[in-house]
Inverse folding.
């Protein structure tokens, strides 16, 4: 029976794993939410009372941090596949820390904006930024929690599991929130 | 079998496969894991169905209450005050409560009954069974999907019991009314609870939809190519695609609304003077139209989210009971696909007269009228499927035929409304009410009934009572036409929707008798639905037992499972599929199940 199953497994190699597929569909759904918001932004931009903002430097730093976290995520996936579990766990931790740092930096950026007079009053670039970047932060935090869960799983070695699928799903998601932020940031900078 | 190999592939080599070959899980099941936090798609389907039934009773009851007001505007019903308290002071439904009732009626029936109750039930039940899978791609997410729906229901119900009452700005919750707590009492806490409940509902739909899509695309049994899928599965697939791509946009609209309500932003608000507080609001630069775009970008696909599953089940039940192959299988798939695409491109036909640029409107007219083409193809195919069939008039079949009738009647009025110039007159009148209740409300209910009567034996191993089924069908279809047909005339005369009393209005006085009549029929039809509910619960325990695995002589895979399938659906290997689902009346045989290999001397199908 086991042999038969293994044959099945190798026979199925080329097909995409359902969990990965589910993730992709889920990402499409997330994209639609941000597409909805950025379209609203584009429509509102032509309204007469549109107010733009000056981006504090912090957002550039956070962008760099986000990019770096994508890199460490990719490296941890590579180490997992090479079964170097110690390195994998270390990189996973770094990714989670960078993710958290990103969130902190975003909030510092928000704080600076707020101090410079951009509050919730109105519906210009700043208000959209609070909401859109805020929602993005929620997605990053979701990723951080998932990373923590994977981290704990990597330690509770009840059964040795070298199934790369969960790690691949995780890294795809992480790259997604990274690219999503890049898109949003560029969008805000160019569509002021 | 192959699904498990994919899902648990790498565990296989490290520890003994705990479900070898049999698939049927023999884990110890507790009451909680079997009935409450179940991860069996069949049990989750039943949870959706029964929750949906409870919601339908509530939502229907609300309509009976406001029909009492509309049909008998001068009468008082002291007993109403006994149950409803100050909402029905002196035995008359108060205006605030009237608006709360219509709002909740719409929300509950559109989302909680015809979306969750319909897709939730049948996508869960039929997808794994008909494609030959042991369960969904992610049973856990599937369970979460139900429980998010449940929490959302609890939040929505709780809004009925707070002092300021539930949301009351209509099921569309347009700002500025919905954005300003001071604008009406229904815009206070009730509106917040509405938004929270709807946000939870969106999460539930997304979790479900993701699962349905990836299950259909990845977990089909051997031989089940996409073009061999029953039309139910195709319909449920496109339903899920619509939901996954449009619900998030609605969510983004709600988020902006929440900020306008509580954070002082002005996405939707501009230049407002509030009569209730005699104050001018500081908000500037917002646009209420923006909300309408975001809302209807979901809102229109939503009506097809409600309709497509019904269409799929009707196709399946009709072919089975006409003992004939479905006519034009590929055309059916193609037209569902066309409807899905068009559903994303027509949302602004709900906004022709609310400030949309008329130039833009003309594009939306064109695209809207295009929907008539795939719709007509489907109707044609249903009728030709019936043509010279060996029809078995089971209750399920009657509801399927009734669906087609309703879809034609309601679709035709859509063509009127789709013309932006005619819509100037018809918008926000009873004509619209008649249109969408016939084509969406009643028709989808018929699809749902058709599904329940047909698959009840698979769900509970017993039949629903037929006599009650026939009574249910005939009174419902006659009643539905008697209720909604006259509304077309009221609408053509210009009678607006969302008013609680027309008697003081000289031009609409003439409809007093008609409204009276409609209300009486509504009460009768509602009572007959209770008969169905009785039949449903009675038959779960006392219905006639199903004796054979395939009581309807059907081709699809769900009828190859045991009468009471366990978690895992098939004992032993999942059957392999060799043909499409519609070989009825072929080569002199009444039906040939999908599992039967094509024999050497068999004629080609279609
Ligand atoms: C040939 C097909 C159809 C066309 C051309 C069409 C067109 C329209 C138009 C233009 C309106 C807006 C009327 C107004 O508010 O002034 C409308 C309303 C509506 N339609 Fe249709 N429709 C079609 C089929 C359907 C179907 C199949 C469904 C549902 C399954 C549906 C559900 C609705 C609903 C729910 C509304 C009213 C929403 C509201 O204002 O509360 N329609 N339709
Ligand atoms: Cu529409």
């Amino acid at each position: 029976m086991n042999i038969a199953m293994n044959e099945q497994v190798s026979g199925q190699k080329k097909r995409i794993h359902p969990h990965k597929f589910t993730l992709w569909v889920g990402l499409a759904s997330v994209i639609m939410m941000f597409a909805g918001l950025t379209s609203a932004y584009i429509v509102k931009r032509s309204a007469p009372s549109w107010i733009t903002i000056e981006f504090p430097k912090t957002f550039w730093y956070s962008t760099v941090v986000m990019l770096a976290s994508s890199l460490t995520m990719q490296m941890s996936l590579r180490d997992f596949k090479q079964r170097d579990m110690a390195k994998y766990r270390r990189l996973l931790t770094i990714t989670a820390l960078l993710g958290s740092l990103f969130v902190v930096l975003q909030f510092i950026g928000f704080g600076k904006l707020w101090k410079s007079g951009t509050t919730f009053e109105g519906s210009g670039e700043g208000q959209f930024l609070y909401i859109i970047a805020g929602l993005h932060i929620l997605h990053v935090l979701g990723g951080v929690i998932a990373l923590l869960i994977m981290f704990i799983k990597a330690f509770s070695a009840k059964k040795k599991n070298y199934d790369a699928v969960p790690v691949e799903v995780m890294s795809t998601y992480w790259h997604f929130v990274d690219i999503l932020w890049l898109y949003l940031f560029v969008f805000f900078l160019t569509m002021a | 079998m192959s699904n498990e190999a994919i899902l648990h592939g790498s565990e296989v080599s490290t520890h003994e496969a705990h479900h070898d070959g049999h698939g049927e899980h023999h884990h110890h099941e507790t009451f909680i894991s079997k009935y409450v936090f179940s991860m069996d798609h069949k049990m989750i389907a039943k949870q959706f169905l029964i929750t949906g039934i409870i919601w339908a009773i509530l939502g229907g009851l609300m309509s009976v209450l406001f029909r009492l007001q509309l049909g008998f505007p001068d009468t008082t019903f002291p007993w109403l005050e006994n149950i409803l308290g100050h909402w029905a002071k002196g035995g008359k439904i108060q205006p605030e409560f009237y608006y709360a009732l219509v709002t909740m009626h719409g929300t509950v029936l559109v989302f909680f009954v015809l979306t969750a109750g319909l897709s939730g039930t049948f996508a869960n039940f039929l997808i794994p069974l008909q494609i030959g899978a042991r369960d969904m791609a992610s049973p856990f997410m599937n369970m979460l999907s139900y429980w998010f729906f449940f929490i959302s229901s609890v939040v929505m119900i709780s809004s009925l019991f707070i002092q300021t009452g539930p949301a009351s700005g209509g099921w569309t919750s347009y700002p500025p009314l919905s954005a300003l707590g001071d604008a009406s009492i229904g815009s206070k806490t009730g509106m917040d609870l509405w938004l929270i409940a709807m946000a939870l509902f969106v999460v539930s739909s997304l979790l479900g939809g993701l699962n349905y899509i990836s299950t259909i695309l990845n977990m089909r049994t051997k031989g089940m190519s996409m073009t061999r899928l029953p039309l139910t599965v195709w319909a449920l697939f496109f339903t899920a695609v619509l939901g996954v791509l449009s619900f998030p946009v609605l969510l983004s609209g709600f988020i902006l609304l929440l900020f306008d309500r509580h954070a002082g932003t002005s996405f939707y608000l501009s230049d407002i003077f509030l009569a209730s507080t005699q104050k001018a609001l500081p908000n500037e630069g917002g646009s209420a139209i923006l909300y309408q775009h975001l809302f209807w970008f979901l809102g229109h696909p939503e009506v097809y989210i409600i309709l497509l599953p019904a269409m799929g089940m009707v196709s399946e039940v009709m072919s089975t009971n006409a003992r004939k192959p479905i006519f034009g299988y590929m055309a059916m798939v193609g037209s569902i696909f066309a409807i899905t695409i068009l559903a994303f491109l027509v949302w602004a036909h709900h906004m022709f007269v609310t400030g949309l640029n008329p130039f833009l409107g003309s594009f939306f007219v064109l695209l809207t009228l295009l929907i008539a083409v795939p719709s007509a193809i489907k109707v044609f195919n249903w009728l030709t499927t019936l043509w010279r069939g060996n029809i078995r008039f089971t209750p399920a079949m009657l509801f399927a035929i009734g669906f087609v009738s309703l879809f034609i009647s309601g679709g035709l009025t859509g063509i009127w409304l789709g013309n932006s110039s005619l819509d100037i007159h018809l918008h926000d009148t009873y004509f619209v009410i008649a249109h969408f209740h016939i084509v969406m409300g009643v028709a989808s209910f018929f699809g749902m009934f058709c599904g329940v009567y047909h698959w009840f034996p698979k769900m509970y191993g017993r039949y629903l009572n037929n006599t009650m089924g026939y009574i249910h069908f005939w009174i419902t279809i006659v009643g539905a036409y008697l209720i909604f047909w006259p509304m077309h005339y009221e609408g053509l005369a210009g009678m607006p929707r969302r008013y609680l009393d027309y008697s003081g209005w000289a031009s609409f006085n003439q409809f007093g008798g008609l409204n009276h009549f409609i209300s009486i029929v509504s009460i009768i039809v509602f009572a007959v639905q209770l008969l169905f509910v009785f039949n449903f619960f009675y038959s779960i325990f006392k219905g006639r037992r199903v004796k054979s695995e395939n009581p309807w002589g059907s081709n699809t895979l769900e009828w190859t499972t045991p009468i009471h399938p366990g978690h895992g659906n098939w004992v032993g290997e999942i059957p392999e599929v060799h043909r499409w689902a519609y070989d009825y009346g072929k080569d002199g045989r009444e039906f040939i199940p999908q599992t039967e290999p094509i024999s050497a001397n068999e004629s080609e199908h279609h």
